[in-house]
Amino acid sequence: MIALPDIQSSNARITTSLSEGSVALFVGGTSGVGEITLKQFASHTKRPRIYFVGRSQEAGTRIATECKTMNPEGEYIFIPADASLIRVVDEVSRGAGGHEGQIDTTDLEARKASIPFYRGHITSMTTLALEHLAEQAPTVSFINVHPGIVKSGVLRETDNLRMWVVWIVLLLLGRWVYVPEAESAERHLFLLTSAMYPASHGEDAEVSVPEGMSVARGADGSRGSGVYSMLWTGESPDNAVQALAGLRAHGIGEVVWRYTESQFKRITGVESI
Ligand SMILES: NC(=O)c1ccc[n+]([C@@H]2O[C@H](COP(=O)([O-])OP(=O)(O)OC[C@H]3O[C@@H](n4cnc5c(N)ncnc54)[C@H](OP(=O)(O)O)[C@@H]3O)[C@@H](O)[C@H]2O)c1
């Protein structure tokens, strides 16, 4: 686990390491993990320009005002948008890094998957899709992270059995398992800004790797590969790396990408926007 003080000390160096006017986009920045990370970014950067997307105009206005108070020199631009047309995006986003498992290619939407299988399936699909994107954009770093269990608005729209189960469990046990919001925000800001998670090509102006640590192991098992699958602790578990290696060996990455493209085409009518 990367210790919180190391993360905080890295974040404290952001203002001196990143140039003024950093631009960030948060899709889903009006609640939960997105909101706290956005605010952490706003409070640690000089003259940031932050775009954030969500459906709630009320939350958008509130957050822009709060950020302006926190860092008056920044620009905070709310973009109201509903991504729900691409429903599968929402489903896919419920998987999260470090939990990769097998993929059922006969049921890519995991409609018939059991709860234990579901997470590994969805998480692997996300990471393999990120690997495909990283090939096209090798100067960009991609991170699929499980944020831990963070108190948020994620269960507001509970609409299926899986999420109801999660809702009940958290209601009963939440206070013992939640990652504190402040810690979660610090850890996500670290992922966004530290040179521990570089792109596969090109040099980014990032905060140098904390002393005594090294560049993170990527999802393919090699250090600094440009695609990272992480637990909230900042670790990349061996079994996730192994599961992905098995899937790649069977060409499942291609299957996932072809499926993703077919869904975009089915929904939007075009292959790319
Ligand atoms: N919290 C956890 O413990 C946890 C654990 C594992 C994984 N995750 C994953 O982490 C991500 C963030 O979760 P969270 O807990 O921060 O959830 P959250 O509090 O519900 O935040 C979700 C964000 O996404 C936006 N959003 C949702 N549907 C949208 C749509 N159709 N169009 C546009 N924006 C939309 C929401 O904004 P509006 O409401 O304004 O639209 C909000 O800003 C999710 O992918 C979740 O599955 C969370």
TrEMBL record:
Keywords: Oxidoreductase
Keyword Isomerase found: no
Annotated protein name in UniProt: Short-chain dehydrogenases/reductase
Molecular functions per Gene Ontology: oxidoreductase activity
InterPro entries in UniProt: NAD(P)-bd_dom_sf, Sec_Metab_Biosynth_Oxidored
